[in-house]
Amino acid sequence: MIGFGNFYRHIADGPLSHWLEVLPAQLAAWQKESLHGKFKDWFNAVDRLPEMTPYRLDLLRSVTAEAESPLGEGQKTGIETMLRVLMPWRKGPFDLYGIHINTEWRSDWKWERVLPHISSLEGRTVLDVGCGSGYHLWRMIGAGAHFAVGIDPMQLFLCQFEAVRKLLGNDQRAHLLPLGIEQLPELAAFDTVFSMGVLYHRRSPLDHLFQLKNQLVNGGELVLETLVVSGDEHQVLVPGDRYAQMRNVYFIPSAKALVKWLEKCGFCDVRIADECPTTLEEQRRTDWMTSESLAEFLDPKDQSKTREGYPAPIRAVLIARKP
């Protein structure tokens, strides 16, 4: 079973220590009651991976681990076989000892759009809400973060993260917990909080923004990346049953409306840092994610629209500060 003892020990004497009042019971309940039907297969794949210590590790420009000399074909094939048990891989890419995990999303492109606009992560404690496989956690460490915590309730993502961690030398600077933001108490302990690709899945987006604010120290920074639509501060799209084939998409505001939402929730120094359409090069099917992707979600006759007739995905990055 994947354990969380190292995480508990790490936070026991710091500003996150009060989290221990509720966290162990939450994770114990998760382990007893909430395991996915495929979790045993995923866990066994992680368990069978060798624990590797990279000769060269690059988390600044990518997530790349290299050995001093190339792996033998048998060892390389064995590692790749276990990693493929953990498909689909959505956030990445990862380059691990000559194995290139070509993920659905070019999450490195998103990171390159985000990083120039945020405060330095040097020495910071950061939280990534809805972190997926944890790709951005490693990039946050590469950018100087002291400690990076990701939360995501999807158990496959936890196993993907633990697999990568094992191949990065059991690095303890980043941790992923199988939780949703609504399970977090008001920690008020993170210097930077990231919410990327989450807001439009929340039935009550303003509640989500308040939850994010409650995790920040005073003066801390929120980095919000989400779907938006074109328009003024009053423009909000409320899709029907699906948006770009995704269920559970509730509200897609304009970036200008999102500024107003953040200000309404008490954030200050709110700014739109970036806004751009999602391209077929950034989100696509690969041999590590073989089901439908963005190309199948758009109108085949007009790629400026989704299959449902809504505007095609545009994503924005907003930066805000907790007073």
Automatic annotation (TrEMBL):
This is tRNA U34 carboxymethyltransferase. Homotetramer. It catalyses: carboxy-S-adenosyl-L-methionine + 5-hydroxyuridine(34) in tRNA = 5-carboxymethoxyuridine(34) in tRNA + S-adenosyl-L-homocysteine + H(+). It holds the Pfam family Methyltransf_9. It is an enzyme of class 2 (transferase). It comes from the Bacteria. GO terms for biological process: methylation; tRNA wobble uridine modification. CDD domains: AdoMet_MTases. Keywords: Methyltransferase, Transferase, tRNA processing. The gene is cmoB. HAMAP family: tRNA_carboxymethyltr_CmoB. Belongs to the class I-like SAM-binding methyltransferase superfamily. CmoB family. InterPro entries: CmoB, Mo5U34_MeTrfas-like, SAM-dependent_MTases_sf. Its EC number is 2.5.1.-. The lineage of its organism: Bacteria, Pseudomonadati, Pseudomonadota, Gammaproteobacteria, Enterobacterales. Transmembrane segments: none annotated. Catalyzes carboxymethyl transfer from carboxy-S-adenosyl-L-methionine (Cx-SAM) to 5-hydroxyuridine (ho5U) to form 5-carboxymethoxyuridine (cmo5U) at position 34 in tRNAs. One of its GO terms (molecular function) is methyltransferase activity. Carboxy-S-adenosyl-L-methionine binds at residues 91, 105, 110, 130, 181-182, 196, 200, 315.
